[in-house]
């Protein structure tokens, strides 16, 4: 019997792609389709990739597309000695451990042999998946069998629970990767975006202080620079929370130290543009982009997660000099045109870019328009605010800090508005607390002028 999955399965080869793949061919049975997709998914988590397709290969095997080639540059090599310095023999906690970045962090960390890795997730399935992956890694990666893997089903917004986990497992370093990241979804789910991206960071950071954690690393995003939407604004507020807490505890020489690592889009992460394009090409198109000129910074998952850990090591060195709360920015090279990315992926799949005539072997590119909360071009920092570090691919940027007492009072007011589910007031307070937030005008698509902030 033909099912919804098999109806998708056109035949693809180097020179052609069947266009009406929903209607053509019996496709694979559902069981074989699921087995193939599961195998490819597991292979990707382990750092591998599927083989290139041959004539007659099913469309879903498009995940052979080489993500590194899409960058148009050589991969960034990790400083393994620096990662070892940060990880070896320590007890490490990762929030959002089952997400794309969380999974990448876990893989990097396990390979550098911590004493213990503590996985925090509020998704049961994601926690199960990452736990099984790490147990599998321990069976195959040399010198990792003795690593203790602790799986915790928990909400980062629950401070007592997070404090308990950190104390019981003697956590030394926290990598806070848990976040809602999809711009259009957060834009229309404002309260949950604030709670998960801002308040959960606040509560987890306080838990780290309560539990005497040595270092707390916030994984942030380029969308926090002059944000125009809720996702970027909530992440920018999270950055300000971390910087203010760093200022607050700076006088305590034994207290928790903080750092922030900011980077752009990650190729192949869940819900990102590359998997979307793969699916659209597999269906025979069209490939949808929001604007002719839209561009983004990109890295692969291994590049990003390796550099996050290396930035954490640099932050540890900074702690010895009394620094805390610095923003580290990953050098992601040049922005990549999303349209050119689409063209490259279409040609890598053995097809041609269509010109409106819907010929066999052609994939159309369709412009859909920028979505609410999206920019045409992202920024990693403003102007000349970037300074070098000891690592060639990691920079720091200056940023204004606010006294914790003042920010904490504002956080409580914002929390009261979210408890009442007062979206209008929550948005107003968020704008007050993140002066560089420039919400897009619904009528014109323009932004308000930012106040004078460096980063």
Please give a structural write-up:
The chain is α/β, with parallel strands linked by helices and 455 residues long. It folds into two domains: 57 residues, no CATH class; 302 residues, NAD(P)-binding Rossmann-like Domain (Rossmann fold, 3-Layer(aba) Sandwich), CATH 3.40.50. Helix content is 40%, strand content 16%. The chain contains 14 helices and 19 strands. The chain has a nine-stranded mixed sheet with strand order 5-4-3-6-7-8-13-19-18, with helices on both faces. It has a two-stranded antiparallel ribbon with strand order 1-2. A two-stranded parallel sheet has the order 9-12. Strand 18 and strand 19 form a beta hairpin. Helix 4 runs parallel beside helix 5 and helix 13 packs antiparallel against helix 14. It is globular.
């Amino acid at each position: 019997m033909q099912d919804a999955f098999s109806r998708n399965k056109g035949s693809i080869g180097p020179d052609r792609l069947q266009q009406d793949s929903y209607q053509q061919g019996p496709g694979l049975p559902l069981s074989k389709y699921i087995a193939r997709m599961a195998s490819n998914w597991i292979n990707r988590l382990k750092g591998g990739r599927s083989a290139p397709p041959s004539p007659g290969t099913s469309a879903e095997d498009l995940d052979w597309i080489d993500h590194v080639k899409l960058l148009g540059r050589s991969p960034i090599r990790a400083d393994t000695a620096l990662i070892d310095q940060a990880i070896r023999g320590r007890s490490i906690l990762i929030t959002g451990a089952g997400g794309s970045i969380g999974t990448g962090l876990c893989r990097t960390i396990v390979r550098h042999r911590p004493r213990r890795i503590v996985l925090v997730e509020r998704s049961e399935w994601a926690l199960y998946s990452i736990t099984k992956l790490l147990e599998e890694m321990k069976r195959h990666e040399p010198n990792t069998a003795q690593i203790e893997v602790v799986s915790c089903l928990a909400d980062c917004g629950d401070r007592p629970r997070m404090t308990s986990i950190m104390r019981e497992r003697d956590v030394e370093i926290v990598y806070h990767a848990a976040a809602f990241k999809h711009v259009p979804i957060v834009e229309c789910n404002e309260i949950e975006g604030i709670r998960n991206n801002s308040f959960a960071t606040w509560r987890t950071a306080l838990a780290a202080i309560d539990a005497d954690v040595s270092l707390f690393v916030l994984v942030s995003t380029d969308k926090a620079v002059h944000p125009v939407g809720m996702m970027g604004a909530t992440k920018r507020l999270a950055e300000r929370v971390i910087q203010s807490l760093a200022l607050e505890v700076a006088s305590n020489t034994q207290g928790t130290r903080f750092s922030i690592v900011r980077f752009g889009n990650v190729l192949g992460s869940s819900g990102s543009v590359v998997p979307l394009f793969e699916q659209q090409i597999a269906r025979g198109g069209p490939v949808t982009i929001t604007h002719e000129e839209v561009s983004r910074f990109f890295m692969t998952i291994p590049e990003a997660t390796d550099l996050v850990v290396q930035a954490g090591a640099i932050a540890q060195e900074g702690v010895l000099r009394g620094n805390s709360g610095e923003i580290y920015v990953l050098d992601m090279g040049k922005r990549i045109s999303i349209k050119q990315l689409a063209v490259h992926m279409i040609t890598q799949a053995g097809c041609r870019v269509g010109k409106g005539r819907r010929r066999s072997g052609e994939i159309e590119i369709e412009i859909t328009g920028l979505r609410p909360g999206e920019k045409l071009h992202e920024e990693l920092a403003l102007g000349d605010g970037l300074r070098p570090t000891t690592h060639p691919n990691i920079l720091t940027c200056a940023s204004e800090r606010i006294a914790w007492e003042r920010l904490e009072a504002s956080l409580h007011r914002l929390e009261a508005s979210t408890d009442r589910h007062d979206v209008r007031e929550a948005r107003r307070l968020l704008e007050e607390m993140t002066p560089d937030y420039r919400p897009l005008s619904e009528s014109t698509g323009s932004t308000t002028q930012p106040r004078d902030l460096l980063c």
